[in-house]
Design a protein that fits this description.
The protein is built from twelve helices and 13 strands. The chain has 444 residues and is of the alpha/beta class. The longest helix has 44 residues.
């Protein structure tokens, strides 16, 4: 094993120090060159060489950066990369760690785009308040584009399908290359001066930013803002944005989209019209049915005057019959009440002969009842006296019996309760005898 001294460092440390030194000395900057040896790894990272006529450098653009790129780089493309110069420590290779990528030459264009956008926005050309609504049913539609553009054919096909009743006026102009912006502005001014359209479609098919650059120039933006006719911008694809899109009254994602936004859909309108006609027909039928029903009701209630008089006459006769019946009924009731009152009065007036006869009969009935009651009470008394005679002790004494009481007056029933010398009271059938026991009595 080799011994190291403080002045000796490892390769790893050397490469790390080199990386630190390079990154401090070379901050992030834009570098232009041609792509070669492009490799897309399964991990999603991109590795390629960026070269010019005299030199080349290895580059790495990792997945978390390249996933935001909306175009696909290929070998041989001139690009500008925003990169950090560094050293790949594992192999000690100098390389660029790419943060962003754009096509070569786009930097100046993007800068010009941003400056003009800021300027016009500050002037209020992008304000939503100045945007005008499109006509719902345009009679004439103007198209500002190249007469040879495929976008024109697509727009015409869409307009013919959606709204064939509208007339179409084409204002031909260059849409790409030198002088295109001035021609587009002139076509917009011509359409405004002729005032024959209700809406203008400013359209162009897709392309690179250089191809669409005419729509990012100030003359076009000023012409759109000055147009008294509402302008729909349909430039490029859905991901393309131009200054014209921000100034226009409405931005469409594509030329075909501009034609769709500027016109109603005939099929949809036909369907809506059919629904309205159907609903109107139903409402009309319901109204007619209601009126017919009301007419039938009025017809039933409408009668001839003679029929009305006849009905009134019958009603009057009915009321007359009811009146007669009610009068007779009340008269019968009053007669019955009078009869009952007469009977009560007849019974209530004095009748002395009848009363005397009734009093005599009542006296006889009372005397008879008193005699019968007296006899019943006499018979009852005799029976009670007979029973009492049988129970009278005097009668028993009359048969030779006597009643013996002691000094306390209690009846003596047993000689065993007497003692010699006790005083006795003897009751006979006639009279009483006092005696004293002289032990002459025989005790049993």
């Amino acid at each position: 094993m080799l011994e190291t001294t403080p002045d000796v460092i490892s390769v790893t440390e050397l490469n790390r120090l080199a990386r630190f030194a390079v990154e401090r000395a070379l901050p992030i900057r834009w570098v232009i060159g041609e792509i070669s040896n492009l490799t897309r790894a399964p991990s999603g990272h991109w590795y390629f060489t960026l070269k010019d006529a005299n030199a080349a450098v290895r580059c790495a653009m990792f997945r978390n950066r390249n996933q935001f790129l909306d175009w696909r780089p290929e070998n041989g493309m001139q690009v500008e990369v925003k990169a950090q110069a560094t050293v790949y420590e594992a192999r000690g290779e100098f390389q660029l760690s790419v943060e962003a990528m754009r096509r070569a030459g786009l930097g100046a264009l993007f800068e010009a785009f941003a400056k003009l956008k800021e300027k016009l926005e500050h002037e209020g050309l992008f304000d939503a308040a100045r945007k005008r609504p499109l006509p719902e049913f345009p009679r004439t539609i103007g198209i500002v584009t190249s007469a040879k553009a495929a976008a024109l054919r697509d727009v015409l096909t869409t307009l013919r399908h959606r709204w064939p009743s509208a007339a179409v006026v084409v204002y031909p102009t260059l849409v790409q290359g030198k002088g295109a912006a001035e021609q587009i502005a002139l076509a917009l001014a011509t359409a405004a001066a002729r005032a024959e359209c209700q809406v203008l479609l400013l359209v162009r098919g897709g392309g690179s930013i250089e191809d669409l650059w005419a729509f990012n120039e100030e003359p076009v933006a000023r012409a759109i803002a000055a147009s008294p006719i509402p302008v729909v911008s349909g430039v490029g694809h859905e991901t393309d944005f131009t200054i014209a899109d921000f100034v226009a009254d409405l931005r469409a994602p594509t030329p075909t989209g501009a034609a769709q936004l500027a016109t109603p859909d005939r099929a949809e309108l036909a369907e809506r019209f059919g629904h309205v006609v159907s609903r109107l027909g139903m409402a009309q039928r319901r109204r007619l049915d209601s009126l017919a029903q009301r007419l039938d009701s009025l017809t039933r209630n409408l009668r001839h005057p003679s029929a009305i008089l006849e009905a009134r006459h019958q009603h009057l006769e009915h009321l007359s019959r009811r009146l007669r019946i009610n009068c007779l009924s009340r008269l019968d009731g009053q007669r019955l009440a009078l009869k009952r009152a007469s009977e009560r009065l007849r019974y209530a007036r004095p009748r002395p002969e009848e009363w005397r006869r009734e009093v005599g009969e009542l006296n006889q009935r009372l005397a008879t009842a008193l005699n019968h009651a007296q006899r019943r009470r006499a018979d009852r008394l005799a029976a009670l006296n007979a029973n009492l005679a049988h129970l009278n002790p005097a009668a028993i004494l009359g048969r030779g019996y006597s009643l013996v009481r002691d000094e306390a007056g209690d009846i003596v029933r047993d000689s065993a309760v007497l003692k010699t010398g006790d005083a006795l009271e003897i009751t006979l059938a006639r009279g009483e005898v006092s005696a004293r026991d002289r032990a002459a009595l025989k005790k049993h």
